[in-house]
């Protein structure tokens, strides 16, 4: 119907009408297209911010572990100490020596840059962790992450986390809710007999990674 009506107009008028329709469509498309948010642009981190954050994890070689005032703390389910922690060549050896189901070595990191952002916590792990346990928590050992409202906890949610494996880089990611500026990172042992070895832990902001 539209083209039929145009046949009654002079050729130059037809061209003008079609041009007008095309321009109107382009204006409509541009008006509806998404544009970058000024707020998002303002929130982007600088290289200085990223460098500052990457240095927040203290004592990544575990040199102060077991000493007074160390950033690395130890906790376990209950009862007498059931896990041993030793340090050798910048790595931690985390092994079972008792009956309690789980033990944790961790440190707390607090910084305003955590609020509303996604973090990536990683480390090199080597394991010889039995899957034979006498508790109902499930056999696994590896990275530990606790954060946000209700203190959401992630325990060794990566592969491998039980059995025998050679050194591998593993990682966990989590998005902290707005207004929360604190996170706990470390290692959990929740397997049977054996040992978990860890070295070179890092906490990074996802938007700072290449």
Give a summary of the structure in a few sentences.
This protein has 210 residues and is α+β, with helices and mostly antiparallel strands. The protein has helices at 2-6, 11-32, 38-43, 47-54, and strands spanning 73-76, 83-88, 91-96, 103-110, 118-129, 141-147, 152-155, 163-175, 182-189, 194-205.
Folded structure, characterized:
The protein has helices spanning 2-6, 11-32, 38-43, 47-54; strands at 73-76, 83-88, 91-96, 103-110, 118-129, 141-147, 152-155, 163-175, 182-189, 194-205. The chain has 210 residues and is α+β, with helices and mostly antiparallel strands. The chain is built from four helices and ten strands. Helices cover 20% and strands 38% of the residues. The chain has two domains: 2-32, no CATH class; 45-208, Jelly Rolls (Sandwich).
Major sheet size, sense and barrel closure:
5 strands, antiparallel
Read across the widest sheet, the strand sequence of neighbours is 1-4-9-6-7
Unreliable residue runs: 12-42
Q: How would the global form be characterised?
A: globular
Beta-strand percentage range:
35-45%
Helix content: 10-25%
Quote the CATH topology of the largest domain: Jelly Rolls
**Secondary structural class:** alpha+beta
The CATH top-level class label of the largest domain:
Mainly Beta
Number of helices: 4
The average pLDDT value, as a whole number, equals 85
Q: What order do the SSEs take from the amino end to the carboxyl end, as H and E?
A: HHHHEEEEEEEEEE
CATH architecture of the largest domain: Sandwich
Rg over C-alpha atoms, rounded to the nearest angstrom:
28 Å
The CATH homologous superfamily name of the largest domain equals Galactose-binding domain-like
Q: Whole-Å distance between the termini?
A: 55 Å
Indicate how many domains the architecture comprises. 2
Instruction: State the total count of DSSP E strands.
Output: 10
């Amino acid at each position: 119907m539209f083209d039929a009506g145009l046949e009654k107009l002079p050729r130059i008028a037809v061209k003008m009408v079609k041009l007008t329709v095309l321009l109107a469509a382009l204006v409509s498309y541009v008006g509806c297209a998404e544009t970058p948010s000024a707020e998002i642009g303002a929130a982007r981190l600088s290289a200085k911010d990223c460098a500052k954050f990457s240095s927040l994890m203290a004592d990544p070689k575990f040199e102060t572990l077991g000493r007074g005032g160390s950033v690395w703390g130890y906790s376990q389910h209950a009862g007498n100490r059931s896990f041993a922690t030793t340090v050798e060549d910048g790595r931690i050896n985390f092994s079972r020596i008792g009956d309690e189901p789980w033990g944790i070595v961790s440190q707390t990191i607090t910084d305003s840059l955590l609020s509303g952002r996604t973090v990536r916590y990683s480390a090199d792990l080597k394991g010889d962790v039995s899957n034979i346990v006498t508790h109902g928590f499930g056999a696994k050992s590896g990275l530990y992450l606790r954060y946000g409202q209700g203190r959401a906890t992630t325990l060794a949610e990566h592969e491998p986390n039980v059995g025998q494996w050679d050194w591998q880089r593993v990682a966990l990611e989590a998005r902290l809710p707005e207004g929360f500026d604190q996170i706990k990172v470390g290692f959990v042992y929740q397997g049977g007999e054996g040992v978990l070895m860890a070295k070179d832990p890092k906490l990074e902001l996802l938007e700072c990674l290449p």
